[in-house]
Amino acid sequence: MNAPALAPSLRRPVPQACLDALAARFGDRLSLNASVREHHGRDESPYPAVPPDAVVFAESTDDVVAAVQACAAHGVPLIAYGSGSSLEGHVLAVEGGITLDVSRMNRVLSVNPDDLTVTVQAGVTRKQLNNEIRDTGLFFPIDPGADASLGGMAATRASGTNAVRYGTMRDNIVSLTVVTAQGKVIRTARRAKKSSAGYDLTRLFIGSEGTLGIITEVTVRLYPQPEAVSAAVCNFPSVDAAVAAVIQTIQMGVPVARVELLDTATVRALNLYSKLTLRETPLLLFEFHGSPAGVEEQATTVQEITREHGGMDFEWAVHPEDRNRLWAARHNAYFATLQLRPGARASSTDVCVPISRLADCIRETNADLARASFPTCVVGHVGDGNFHVQMLLDPDSEAEWTEAETINRRMVRRALDMDGTCTGEHGVGLHKMQFLAEEHGEDALALMRQVKQAFDPLNILNPGKILPPPTR
Amino acid sequence: MNAPALAPSLRRPVPQACLDALAARFGDRLSLNASVREHHGRDESPYPAVPPDAVVFAESTDDVVAAVQACAAHGVPLIAYGSGSSLEGHVLAVEGGITLDVSRMNRVLSVNPDDLTVTVQAGVTRKQLNNEIRDTGLFFPIDPGADASLGGMAATRASGTNAVRYGTMRDNIVSLTVVTAQGKVIRTARRAKKSSAGYDLTRLFIGSEGTLGIITEVTVRLYPQPEAVSAAVCNFPSVDAAVAAVIQTIQMGVPVARVELLDTATVRALNLYSKLTLRETPLLLFEFHGSPAGVEEQATTVQEITREHGGMDFEWAVHPEDRNRLWAARHNAYFATLQLRPGARASSTDVCVPISRLADCIRETNADLARASFPTCVVGHVGDGNFHVQMLLDPDSEAEWTEAETINRRMVRRALDMDGTCTGEHGVGLHKMQFLAEEHGEDALALMRQVKQAFDPLNILNPGKILPPPTR
């Protein structure tokens, strides 16, 4: 697999003294094993693995400090690694160095049900968190497709299906504990719900993809489990009609908890993979949270809206089992669609536009996809104006990769022309760096570079990510 | 008035060449008039005025660029000024220089009702905005006490009574246009609802109080005007009982739009100032937004909660006139309480704590206030764990200022001990600088200083604010 092409290797040497220092501290939690390195050199993106020189397994913030100090002393790159589920090449060791695996930092440190907050170590995953707090009657809503770690979700400013109602990681993180490039441990904020006390370091680290500091603890907001939940599926004659229904729902201020678009190809894949019997047309998957009366009121309103837009078969999933099965299927969409072409790898793109332009953006993108020489699927967190295209590619065909990259570039430029963003929730990683200047302008990008330079002057933290090399 | 004491003057010279450059560009929109300078050298804080050397009235982003360039060329301080309603000395020209008044930048630039966004110039005030968009059926919820400018509200990360439901400026700003200290114009984000594309410059400028760049345009989220609104007043036997009712309301997830605490002194002041007949006990002022059935459901739940906590007289304000009168009175609380002691100036403090500690924090603070030698009032956006104390001081009594500062320091330290913040919404300005190291730690403060140094290496943007001088 040759594409998307990586820049010629910029690997920096890792001096033996650095490895010795790490070995002294970490013992057998330092691994030079080829398969361990290979595993940590890739994510769910189509990029081929670029393994680090070694992998260190951290179990505490102190461990992270030790790893940062060893790398800082020798100018060695250090790449934070949570669950490896990122989609844009975030964790590839493009300049070599050490990968810092925080998945063993998996303790829930303190639950504060009265304040609706919880503090966890960075390696705790979203499913683990919700399992551990179930008895409190609270839940954490942010749900990217994978069972990602909270640290990784913070680092990529992740969101998911519930963001339309509950917001993204940006909105739901109260405070972070971060190890700086100098090996200092800071806490970015207190646990108060709001503050005007100084620069928003919390938000600066959220979405910084490990390039400004290593997140070791995360305090997030929790929500009372809704008294009532209902879900519904509605088929539509076209993607256009489905999107029009969503736009009207949002504009009327109906507080839907989730509204997901699946195109026909995705529905077909889910039926195959998750043994469902969904009618194979574009469909919207809704979820409503609230009091029993509130949920019924929302659902009635939405049902009327869908009918106006040609929606058919507004079908309820009332039983929790049915509902969970449906949403589990939605979360497995990525893996399900992979089965549409055995042996394929997916290029999964991600744009977000103002919702008034969503129908245009998807329609124009579909015109491109109709001409593609490989299978594609469209799914979307459409209530936020965010959608994804999965392109199922033959890993050995350079022609297909080139074609996919052309579609991706056209889709991103289309989103930017509509005042949208090149990534709604996946992050920049390696793959979206090429669009950052176009999205933000060179002067804003220069400010971002100044932040990076100020926080990490040796450029040891996940180097070669987010910020493209200056062109002027 | 001598206290709170200002550091010895650090005024920097303003070279004639700088004034000449400004005069050439701004003509009679450059003012050296003493009363204009005096007016721009103070805010609503108790600090005595520290006037700038000159005031420039900007009418466009280009004007702001010109002012920044003139100041940058001569190393002259430049202080952005919106409506002058800040409370912690934000706009005082403590190092001299030029004040940049943006109040004439008061145009609503584009309303996008389909996307629930609006873009305004920085000088547009919150009331003006809501007047201009009334016909769209949408509204902008953030409402600090004063009719502040959107630019100022962004710069101080303001919130207000609706934040418990709609969030703060942090949550509601989509994008900013900012003039950097180098005179470059950047836009911090696209108009998509969410993005993972790079460092969050938007949030970095929000709350930066004019020290990192000059905000010239603000794009904010709007909300559909709720179908139904109702308000209610409930008296309580004690502040403790009222706060306990609020905590339970929040913990149950009731989506109240507003819940304000007023102590007995404040209620008395409102009755006098706004000619109301509220019963003079601690009270909570609620507002509910939603569908007619949803509002009724919320109100019923809250009424039950208040009853459990000894609430009396759950009284409805059903008619919009009654409701608006009540909320107008609440917004005038600052001015109303000033009347409790004619000739007094108010020291208005602001802390925010995790809601589980709110009752403790207010109770311990009230013990201090009971011993104060001047009138005091407590009001709070208690749903957020945020409350204010107004201390009505004789401007000529140094003893009273010293006493007030002691109470303020004790209150802030109490909030910090409870994992709270030294300011929930007023900002740092001059008055809270002393607590920033305690709140964030020296290492986090060092990062903030690095951001300031990177963005404004000449230290011309509102110097002497937010960041205390390093102690090590």
Keywords:
seven-stranded antiparallel sheet, FAD binding (chains A, B), transit peptide (chains A, B), 472 residues, 36% helix, homodimer, Vanillyl-alcohol Oxidase, Chain A, domain 3, five-stranded antiparallel sheet, Uridine Diphospho-n-acetylenolpyruvylglucosamine Reductase, domain 3
Tell me about this structure:
Chains A, B: It comes from Pigmentiphaga kullae. Chains A, B: This is D-lactate dehydrogenase (cytochrome). Chains A, B: Residues 48-225 form the FAD-binding PCMH-type domain. With 472 residues, the first copy, chain A, is an alpha+beta fold. Among the domains of chain A are: 108-224, 2-Layer Sandwich (Uridine Diphospho-n-acetylenolpyruvylglucosamine Reductase, domain 3), CATH 3.30.465.10; 226-429, FAD-linked oxidase, cap domain/gating helix (Vanillyl-alcohol Oxidase, Chain A, domain 3, 3-Layer(aba) Sandwich). Chain A contains 17 helices and 18 strands. In chain A, the strands form four sheets. A seven-stranded antiparallel sheet of chain A has the order 15-12-14-13-17-18-16. Chain A is globular, with a radius of gyration of 22 Å. The model of chain A has no long low-confidence stretch (mean pLDDT 94). At the A-B interface, strand 9, helix 8, strand 11, helix 9 and helix 11 of A face strand 9, helix 8, strand 11, helix 9 and helix 11 of B.
